[in-house]
Amino acid sequence: MPAPLVREAPALEWEERALESTEGRAYGCLSESLAARGVDIDRVEGRLRSQRVETPSWGFGDTGTRFAVFPQRGVPRDPFEKLADAARVHGLTGVCPTVAIHIPWDRVDDYSGLKEHAESLGLRIGAVNPNLFQEPDYKLGSVCHPDPAVRRQATDHLLECVEVAVEVGSDVLSLWFADGTNYAGQDSFIERRHRMVECLGEVYSTMPDDLRMLLEYKPYEPAFYHTDLADWGAALTVCQKLGERAEVLVDLGHHAKEVNIEYVVALLLDEGRLGGFHFNNRKYGDDDLIVGSVNPFELFLIYVELVGAEERSGKRIDYMIDQTHNIEPKLEAMILSVTNLQEAYAKALLVDRLAVDEARRAGDVLGAHRALLDAYAADVRPLCAKVREDLGAAADPIAVFKESGYAQKVAGERGEGAGAGWG
Ligand SMILES: [Mn+2]
Question: How far, in Å, is the centroid of ligand 1 from the Cα of 215?
């Protein structure tokens, strides 16, 4: 057997690794070179410390595809256990204090109890996500359904979710509709749109002032001929009809192939209507893979637009993960997703914007491009590790998680998760 190219590092406690190792030295080198370039490293670290990522309750449970769900041992059996796992991710990464919930998957008798449980774990409930795609009644749609009785039922569920949001202390109602048609001629595009605006208008008018409504679009699936909110323009124009607290949510998996998502993000930012993100990544369709796992450069370019907008206005944007972890260990997948987001944001913060602007003004096409590549090529892992330590989290969260024995402990306590939390 040939000798390994890289010698195994001696096993050290993670604290020792963080302090004396290559990471500490690498951080020193990186911060020196950034300082030499005139980067205000304290400011960059401050921005990284204030980054927030919301984890989804459904990302901790058993999920799958339409072909199969592969149960994993130790997955949460109820919303309380999902919050416990989310707290673990927050403890290790330092930037995930909120958890999105899904009704009815996370339905409980006592929502204020759920809120208190979250708070006891150092968390808050984030976006409330209604479900209007599982009931047989919704075969032809929910808020766009031709039958007013079905639209009433769908609207009532949305109103129930407004009440849930108030009870759990959430300020985001996050909506995705499976509504659409499968065959040409099946229904009127325009009548369906009017039905949606009417139902959402009723919901919007009951929302307390501090609640925001996010509208998510998707080009196809489950509908295959047309979708009622198929793209950012369809979502934006409905938001404009509803009011200022209705904003567009961009799910990275919900675009036709080759759509320039960073351009969509820039447009929505410029309209002041980018309300939130569902982070994930895809190779083909709506694959819900770990964010940054397929196209990290695209993720970086999206953050470049976001950083620019942060500097122009302080408008709130909710950064949420929306993934299904089918074959990968769920907590490790969530932690990796968060660290990928920390790294993408860090790289975007390192872009030399003055150099970009100068190159643009001079018509230096590749000068501007290379200024982005320089930031993208930076190894920001030591910087992110240092920021996590400053937050009281872990320099190497996956290593700490694996060494902690948490996965084994919950596997023993919870056993098979019985497909909890995913329909
Ligand atoms: Mn989504």
Answer: 10
Half-sphere exposure of 178 (CA within 13 A, CB side): 18
Ligand 1 centroid to 221 CA: how many Å? 12
Distance 21 CA to ligand 1 centre (A): 39
Closest CA to 173 of 122, 274, 102: 102
CA of 357 to the centre of ligand 1 (A): 34
Give the model's confidence band at 1: pLDDT under 50 very low, under 70 low, under 90 confident, else very high: low
Q: How many CA atoms lie within 13 A of 48 on its CB side?
A: 32
The amino acid present at 252, given as its one-letter code, is: L
Mean pLDDT of the chain: 93
Length of the chain, in residues: 423
Read off the pLDDT of residues 375-423 as tens digits, 9 standing for 90 and up.
Answer: 999 999 999 999 999 999 999 999 999 999 999 999 999 987 655 444 3
Q: From ligand 1's centre to the CA of 391, what distance in Å?
A: 28
| Cα-to-centroid distance, 57 and ligand 1 (Å) | 13
296-344 pLDDT, tens digit per residue, is 999 999 999 999 998 888 889 999 999 999 999 999 999 999 999 999 9
What spacing in Å lies between the alpha carbon of 216 and ligand 1's midpoint? 7
